[in-house]
Amino acid sequence: MRFRPTLVRNNSVWTRFQSLNSLSLLTRIKTRPIRAFPPRLGGQILGATFASDFFTIVNMFKSLAIGLRLLIMLSFCGLTASGQRYAHEREEWNKPFKPFRIAGNLYYVGATGVSAFLITTTEGSILIDGGLPETAPLIEKNISDLGFKITDIKYLLNSHAHFDHAGGLAELQRLSGAQMIASAGDSQTLRTGIDTVLGPSGSFPAIKIDRVISDNDTVQLGGMTLTAHLTPGHTRGSTTWTTRISENGKTYRVLFHSSTTVAANKLVNNHEYPNIISDYEASFAKFKKLSCDIFLAPHGSFFHLTEKLKKRAANNSNPFIDPNELQRFVNQSEMDFKRELREQKSKSERPPQN
Ligand SMILES: [Zn+2]
């Protein structure tokens, strides 16, 4: 595993995952000499040479006991079926992606499927999102490939506290020494690394938070101002950030969307997050009042990252500048939310099947 113990200092589930991944236990099982079953075993075990089969049976029970112990440990960590839940997505999202300049002093430094944005200034830089835990080294490399230093990062921001956008923040905080700024709604998840909605498979290394922000609070550095817009629903503290970027004498309004997909969220009868529906609705209403020239989001697919890069290479324009994209995205996302809400409501109203 590529994670160091420091990365997992406050996350018991991840620490257990680490110790399992040290392969010590698995190696022990694999290398333990287990006698092969003799071909005559089927139906004839009682008639076989006593000494030989006695040891075979003893070894068989020993390996069964170890296997059972491993199974219990894995179940305890929630790492059997659920641990594999996002394995394919994680692999796809974390494929390396060549970093590039979006506009002015704004750069894409994330992986193929999970975003990370770097804003550089004369007084240091700001990083929005840290990808998955395994994305942190890619982000570090991307920043260095662009000619910047990770130690120049002064502030770390987060779109929302899910493992695919907050997972790498602890390691990036360790590497950069930057201050973590987060909303109150997402603070608990970030501080513990425990996602109560996604369960153990959504856990990630815990992050130390240096400043908690409220709606419309700002982060300032080297002449740049970033404004926080709380847009909860997807998580309790989902935060959309806005700023202005200058290039060739023009200023562009940039918006980093928090995400408003329903994902694994329970919308109906959610006792843990009773206001989830009204939060989503208020966030959609808020987005309708916002506008921007450059629309960015936590997943590249949300803002057509690869398609835009291809377009940019083909006709030398900047397809990232599109003042209508935010509202197109918001309308689609709201329709998806309403459909999901209807489906969840009709399922909850269906009488239980006997
Ligand atoms: Zn998410």
Strand ordering within the main sheet: 1-2-3-4-5-6-7
The CATH architecture category of the largest domain equals 4-Layer Sandwich
Distinct compounds present:
zinc ion
Helical segment count: 12
User: What is the total domain count?
Assistant: 2
Quick one: biggest sheet?
7 strands, mixed
CATH class of the largest domain: Alpha Beta
Which shape, going by the Cα principal axes?
A: globular
CA(first)-CA(last) distance: 47 Å
Which bin fits the share of residues in helices? 25-40%
Task: Give a structural overview.
The protein folds into two domains: 5-80; 84-349, 4-Layer Sandwich (Metallo-beta-lactamase, Chain A), CATH 3.60.15.10. α10 (276-289) packs antiparallel against α12 (325-349). The chain has helices at residues 12-21, 24-31, 41-44, 50-77, 87-93, 136-145, 163-166, 169-176, 184-192, 276-289, 305-315, 325-349; strands spanning 100-103, 106-108, 117-121, 124-128, 153-157, 179-183, 211-213, 218-221, 224-230, 239-247, 250-256, 294-296. The strands form two sheets. A seven-stranded mixed sheet has the order 1-2-3-4-5-6-7, covered by helices on one side. Mean pLDDT is 83; it is low at 1-58 and 66-83. The longest helix is centred in the first third of the chain and has 28 residues, at 50-77. The chain contains twelve helices and twelve strands. The protein is of the alpha/beta class. It is 39% helix and 17% strand. It is globular. Zinc ion is lined by residues 160, 162, 234, 259, 263. The site of zinc ion has 5 residues, from loops.
